[in-house]
């Protein structure tokens, strides 16, 4: 069915959320914004729209990206559509006094210029109420240490997509140990070739399998930290 044939306002809440998943998947930013606005008009909480429509939609995208059904340009379109929906929700999420869940500095390690996964994590973390400082790609250890000092985050996130750049994560963690600051931060690592075992071997606190999982783990680690 052609997109123009669907009047989003005629759909039930459940159908509309499904349609938003489809529109997100197809990278249709305007439709995602319209769906977001309709749900707000129907009295949905901003956070519920974020989780049920946008984050869930991106989770589906993430699975198909992982399985080679979707490719980078398409995922960028999807992420862009999500961002458009987020723009509508952001001020409202802030307004509802959703306390900041925590602060994160994130960047891709030296030698690696991939940033799709990192950017998806940033969007989802921000959506979950975290403040995120993105230090970009190809970061040497000095850049990470400077960012930690300057921004004083709760979490340091490192990303790598190449097996050749993965070991650099250990360089960063070792430098933190050497400076006596390792235990001041929750260190999270992620990227397609990584796994739990690798995360343990470099001395990280957690491995985020995908963006949605990273948010869950970050929340959990922050809760543990706040209790401590």
The second-level CATH architecture of the largest domain is: 3-Layer(aba) Sandwich
Intertermini distance: 54 Å
Classified in CATH, the superfamily of the largest domain is: Cobalamin-binding domain
Strand content: 5-15%
Name the CATH class of the largest domain.
Alpha Beta
How many domains is the backbone divided into?
2
* CATH-defined topology of the largest domain: Rossmann fold
Put simply, the count of helices is 9
Average pLDDT for all residues: 91
Structure description:
- 57% of the residues lie in helices and 11% in strands.
- Strand 1 (102-108), helix 5 and strand 2 (130-134) form a beta-alpha-beta unit.
- It has a 5-stranded parallel sheet with strand order 2-1-3-4-5, sandwiched between helices.
- The longest helix is centred in the middle third of the chain and has 24 residues, at 72-95.
- The chain has 2 domains: 3-95, Methyltransferase, Methionine Synthase (B12-binding Domains), Chain A, domain 1 (Orthogonal Bundle), CATH 1.10.1240.10; 102-227, Rossmann fold (3-Layer(aba) Sandwich), CATH 3.40.50.
- It is of the alpha/beta class and 228 residues long.
- The chain is built from 9 helices and 5 strands.
- The termini are far apart.
